[in-house]
Amino acid sequence: TGDTGAAPTAPAFDCTAVPTEPISTREIEGARGYHDVAFDPLGNLIGSDNNALLQSTYTGQIAVFVPGLGVVQGMDWLPDGDLVVARDADESLQRVNPLAGASVLATDVAAYGVITGPDGMVYTANYLAIHRIDPATGEKTVIVQQAGLRPRVLNFSPDFGRLYIGTFQG
Prior knowledge:
Blueprint: E1 38-39, E2 45-48, E3 53-56, E4 62-66, E5 72-77, E6 83-87, E7 92-97, E8 101-106, E9 113-116, E10 122-125, E11 130-133, E12 140-144, E13 151-156, E14 163-167
Antiparallel strand pairs: 1-2, 2-3, 3-4, 5-6, 6-7, 7-8, 9-10, 10-11, 11-12, 13-14
């Protein structure tokens, strides 16, 4: 069968079957999400305490994942297993590895939203534009910049066919 150009059909979801309250909740101590969190391959929560990245287990064990990053915004995993985080203090993107520490991936990014695309590139939103950043070289390319758009967060559709942009209206 050939591509008809039609958008893929999303699975049906019965909104009347959604519980009115959460079935269960659990607050995980330690790692907090100022604006984002990530889960490592073992299911531990990676978040910030506005100084270090912390790793918290479901049972409440807390460890420093990487110290000294300060306030971070968005974060996501790179294909090689490193974490990429947007750092406020110097508006950089940092490549984070718990064994090697943090290193600058790109400068002058000022990102809020961060997501790794299916192509292995990092996509960021910073209220002015959407950038695609090569994690191997740090090279930035503006892919969306439109007056008044104010992109803040972004994510790909489940089939990676579309990039959705959440904007700031304030």
